[in-house]
Amino acid sequence: MTLSPGLPTPDGPGSVSQVPNLPTGFTDTFTSRYVDIGELHLHAVTGGEGPALLLLAGWPQTWYAWRLLMPALARDFQVVAVDPRGVGLSDKPRGGYDTGTLARDMVALMDALGHEHFAMVGHDIGMWTGYALAADHPTRLDRLAVAEAAIPGLSPSPPLFGSQQANDRLWHFAFNRHANLNEQLISGREHLFFGHQFATKSARPLPAYAVQHYIDTLATDPAALRGSFEFYRALDTTIAQNQDRKTRRLTLPVLAIGGAQNLGASVGETMTLAADDVDSLVLPECGHYPAEEAPGAMLAALTAFLAPYRNRWTASDVRR
After folding, report:
1. Which of 61, 101, 103, 205 is most buried, most CB within 10 Å of its CB?
2. Residue ranges per domain, the chain?
3. Exposure string for 293-305, b = 16+ CB within 10 A, e = fewer
4. pTM (whole model) above 0.85
């Protein structure tokens, strides 16, 4: 599994060169690349100096969700922000959307980039994958930060006839798992469906240009729209995997971040079901998208949490 010199440089919509409103100087540090992990090609945006840090966003976003944090993180870390399979400019196979496979994809990606050990930040479905990676590949991760998700098969399942508030927050789980009707119902109405998700789950509205970028990414590629649902269609497999994983507790340090106006302290409560060393942080006036709603607070939390990892690497200059 190696970087393939024959692969073209990503330069279409979704690449570093064609996304809107990046922070000043972003393209001086970060570049898009395709990485061959054997089974498929993943799109990663990389840059920076220091120990490796993997950033994995969730549904229905891409690597672009991390753009406001990446320049500061790149001063201390080799940052890898990736589109997982089915997302953005990465390949979109029909299968492999259970978290065991997604975690193996991430390990293969970091192998191909030359990173034997790394830290990881996962949001939403990226949190699902981060948990799977920590449980299935415990020697690879140094530290894990997660944000704004419950973990199917680990967290208690909400009742079918729950409160109206719970239904308004969770109804898309059942919808997204449907086997084949989703794309037909959403096609041509992507702004209505995905726009509703962003509007109702954020305490501070995301910039209109960012929401439009995410929606355009899904609306212009039928395979991306299908891929956005495949993570949920694979939940039976993921739940079975997590029921096995929870018998093996995590020992690495974990930071659990919740938005006060969405999941809040329940993110930390979820991780204590699986891990022994959990710090929980609730960000005030924040909803489901902390990297975009509260980038300063999230950056400060990650900087403090990752400092021991960075300092050990600086001292030894060998853990890359």
Report:
1. 61
2. 16-316
3. bbbebbbebbeeb
4. yes
